[in-house]
Amino acid sequence: MTSIDFLTFLEEGFCARDIVEQKINESTSSDDKDAFYVADLGDVLKKHLRWARTLPRVTPFYAVKCNDSRPVVETLATLGAGFDCASKTEIQLVQSLGVEPSRIIYANPCKQVSQIKYASAHGVQMMTFDSEVELMKVARSHDNAKLVLRIATDDSKAVCRLSVKFGATLKSSRLLLERAKELGLDIIGVSFHVGSGCTDPQTYAQAIADARYVFDMGAELGYSMTLLDIGGGFPGSDDSKLKFEEITAVINPALDKYFPADCGVRIIAEPGRFYVASAYTLAVNIIAKKVNMKEQSGSDDPPGSLAPLHSHQLTSHVFSRV
Question: Is 270 a catalytic residue?
Answer without folding.
Answer: yes
